[in-house]
Amino acid sequence: MPGFPSGGPLRGLPRGTGNISAVEPFPQAAHRELGDAQLRANLGRATHTIRDKRLKVVSELPDWEALRDAGSAIKTEAMARLPELLTQFEEQFAARGGTVHWARDAAEANAIVEGLIRETGEKEVVKVKSMATQEIGLNEHLEERGIAAFETDLAELIVQLGHDRPSHILVPAIHKNRTEIRDIFLREMPDVDPTLTDEPRRLAMAARAHLRKKFLSAKVAISGANFGIAETGTLGVVESEGNGRMCLTLPETLITVMGIEKVLPRAQDLEVFMQLLPRSSTGERMNPYTSMWTGVTPGDGPQNVHVILLDNGRTRALADRHGRSALHCIRCSACMNVCPVYERTGGHAYGSTYPGPIGAILSPLLTGVEAEENASLPYASSLCGACFDACPVKINIPEILVHLRGEDVSGGTAGRRRRGFPSQLDVALGAASWALSSGDRLGLLEKGLPIARALAGRDEKISRLPGLGAGWTQSRDVPAPPSESFRSWWKKREKEAR
């Protein structure tokens, strides 16, 4: 891969991955979040609303499936030609007055951004909503070094003022209702009207007044990018509020952090994605604001323009032939809005910047499934397939989840456990293998059926099992076993017949 200093991108576990490693296993985090009834109510209303809007606008297009196929094909081509396309993008962007930087991981990207801001002498920056900067932990990095980064997207602003973490790719504050948002504004927003109500219009007006001062005074802006066009060196951001347009045009310096997988071969490819993305993300026929810029335009917009091309585990994911299609993701969040697991646990349970079904595959692919922090994420799914049906670029998320589970069992944390002391699952599977490999052994075990039947009692079910089985009976009942086996019943029948 051209452009990376010191011998190319990292192929092993990245040394400074930022916010893509969970701080605790998913089962523990999910169990805690399930106890929050308000969270489940907020998520249920929000995801159902977005889902219904998406279904309506998608059904209007007779060629929707053809568009999905086209999007998948374009992303497949881009990943197959990634080194070539990135080189072309760098050449075209630089030829038009922009500066290209390459970052192998979060630590390098953060250091580059910090250095560029210090060159301007500024202590404050405004930000367009960006998953890449959230991924590398840029806000935290800058804050520790005395630079204030102000989020200008309304939902990101709510999360930032609430000292919280995003829980959704598209709507980071989806876990908050409007009363909670009003309380955050009253507590954290300077000069807010103390009579502020939770009426959405009033909340939006308060945020607009707060942000307007930042837009007009900021000299430096930081953005992500939805797309980077190799053919022309163009960057593109799509958004719904106009805050991005303000950040991309008013400041003197513009710094963009873009994951290397966002590159597309041609400008014509946008024809497909500008139909897929808004319908899949917000349920709109087209997004309200689309901003495109190519390097520097003298006398118009920022005159000091930079882009940081971020790896942070992406070449690692690209090397996985079963999982590399996760890099096709266009961050629409459609998979989250249909996922029964996400709807009940919320995004915080996943621990990573990328929650939901796509996060369950993308985070382990970026860090390696052998990283214990993310090893439980591939199991955060019922494998129902709704995410695959909703994905606008046809990422087969269930198939990749199964692949990653296999990787975990063979070489990840589960594999390491097997090479040490055997787990309860290992013992149980070993016992089942021993019993089922011989009819005589199975017959011996079947003699214990009356005892198991007695444990069930009159309820005709077993409500509590010890050890590994407790995880099942915690939320389900096990049907009572029969009082005798088929083999025993058949022998009695044959004996009576004679």
Spell out the key features of this protein.
498 residues; alpha/beta; Rossmann fold; 2 domains; 49% helix; 10% strand; elongated
Describe this structure in words.
The protein folds into 2 domains: 26-315, Rossmann fold (3-Layer(aba) Sandwich), CATH 3.40.50.10420; 439-497, no CATH class. Helices cover 49% and strands 10% of the residues. It has 24 helices and 12 strands. The strands form 3 sheets. A 6-stranded parallel beta sheet has the order 1-10-7-4-2-3, sandwiched between helices. Strand 5 and strand 6 form a beta hairpin. Helix 9 (178-188) packs across helix 10, helix 16 (356-367) runs parallel beside helix 18 (397-411) and helix 18 packs parallel to helix 19. The longest helix has 22 residues, at 37-58. The chain is elongated, with a radius of gyration of 26 Å. Mean pLDDT is 89; it is low at 4-15.
